[in-house]
Amino acid sequence: MRELFHLPEKYGYKAPLASVSENFDFKAFYRLCNSMDISPTTIAVASDLFIKLQSTDELIASLEYLAIETQRKVSNIRHHLTLLEKSGFVEGEFITTDPIRKRRGKLFKLIIPQGAALTSAPESEEVENFKLVASNTVESINIDQYEDKTRFIELQIVRYLVKAMRTNRKDKSSKISIDIRENSLVKPIKITARAEEGRLVYLPDMSYYAGAITWLIDHIQGRLLETDNIGETFTLPLEPLIALAKDINLSEASGGGYVTNAISALQRISATTFDMADFFEASNSSVVDIELFFKLFRLEAIVTYKDDKGLEKKAAVLQFPRSTITNLVNAIRSRQELNGLLLIQSDIFATNNEIEILFGLWAREHLITGKQALKIYTWNELRESVAPSSKLPEFKRKFSNMIIANHDPTYNAKIHEKITKKITEQVGSTYLSGSKKGERVVEYGRATIQGYLVNIGYSEEQGCSIIAFRRDMSALSIIGQIGANKTSPA
C-alpha cells in the first residue's frame, strides 16, 4: 500500500483521492466513454474533475477538495468514479495518507482502457453463437485510406431523416413525428420514424451509417471499372467498420464493449422505418405530392468468419435500398458526388452531445448548398431548424454546452439591463442563467463552430434572446476541402 503522507502535509489532501496522468488524452477518454454508453452525467463529472486536476501541482487532489471546486458532494463524485472503475475507465488503488494509523484509503485514477480490458466486459447472449461463413464472402475494408477523417452521408438523409431520430439516450420512444418547413414548399414535410420492438434509431448510431456509406462509395467506384452490376447486400467486417465509424485503431475496435454497442446500433438503424408525407417532387409540367417509405439499411444477420490469423471475428450482413445504390452509382458516374452527398468529418460524431452532432450536420449542409450566409433565430426557431425532435429545454441546454466548449475568449459582452438579474454564472467569456448545472443556458456568448461565428444575446427589438450566424473565415477551409473532394470522395 503506497504511502502518500506528503499530500496532507503539503496541500491538506486526505484520502479518498483522484488523479490523472500528465499525458492523459481526455478527448480519447471522452470519445470512448461515449462509444461505451457511459451516461452523460458520469462523463460530465469526469470532465469537471479532469479540468480541476489540471490546476493542481501533482495532478492529484482529494475528493473533498474537488467536491468544493465542482460544487458537488463527495458521495456523488465517488459514486460516478466507482461506475467508471467498473467500466474500466478508472484504476483504483489502495493508499494511505494517514502517517499515524495508516488507515487505508483509495486513489481513483482516470485511465483510457485498452482493447484487452474492454474485451473482458460481458457480452449479451444475443451477440453470441453466430453462423460461421466463408472468409471470402466478407468484404475488405482498408482503414488506412480513411486517415483523413473524410466521411460521407447522403444529403437528403441529413436534410430530413436525422431530424426525426432520438436525441436523448434515455428516451424510449418507438415513434417520433415532426414537421420540416422548407421555404420553397407550400406546406411542411411530415416525417414519422417508427421502430420495431421499441428500438428507434439514436442519433450517434449514424456514425456507423456514415462509415458504411463511405466504404460503399469506394467499393462501387472500384466495381464500376469492371461491371455495371452492383448488388445491394454486403457482408462488412465489424471491427474495421467500428474503427471507421468511431475513428479509432483496429486494436481498440476489437474490444467486446465496442462490438456489443455496434451491433445494438446496427439493430436500431435496421429496425427504424421513416415515412415521409407531403413531400413534393417537381417535374417540367407539375409538382406531385408523394409519400416515401425509407429504411437506411436492413441488418440481415450477424455472422462470424475467420481472419488471416485464424481468429474468429464478427461481420454484419447489410442490405441497402436499391435507391441508395442507384443514387451512389449515378453520382459517381456524373463525377458530381456532392450534389447528393454531404462531406463531413468523423469528428462530428466524437461527442455525446446529440445537438452538437445535428448542428455539425446542419452547418455543413448550409455551407455546401450556400443556403445561409447570415441569419438570426430565436431559440425555438433554431430548434425547429436544427433538431425539431428535441424538447426546447434540452436543446437550449445542449446547444449552450457547445457554445461554452468553443467560446471566444476575446468576447466582451454588453449585457442588457433586463438580463443582468438572470445571470447566475460566468464561464470564460459566456454568461449563463440557471440555478442548477444541468439547466444552464447561455444568455450572452460567442463561439466559432463548423465554419460559423455564432453570437447569442438579447434583442430589445424582439424582446427575447436571439442567436445570430454568419460565415467565419474558417468556412473557407471547409469549402476548399469540399471542392477538393468533388471529383473523388475517396
Short summary of the structure?
With 490 residues, the protein is of the alpha+beta class. It has 17 helices and 20 strands.
Written description of the protein model:
This protein is globular. The protein has a 6-stranded antiparallel sheet with strand order 15-20-19-18-17-16. The longest helix has 18 residues, at 206-223. α2 (26-35) runs antiparallel to α3 (40-53), α3 crosses α5 and α8 crosses α9. The protein has helices at residues 6-10, 26-35, 40-53, 63-70, 74-86, 115-119, 155-159, 206-223, 238-246, 250-253, 256-271, 322-334, 354-369, 379-386, 392-405, 417-420, 474-484, and strands spanning 2-3, 17-20, 60-62, 90-96, 105-110, 150-154, 175-180, 189-195, 233-237, 272-282, 287-294, 298-306, 312-319, 341-345, 374-377, 423-427, 430-433, 441-449, 452-459, 464-471. With 490 residues, it is α+β, with helices and mostly antiparallel strands. β12 and β13 form a beta hairpin.
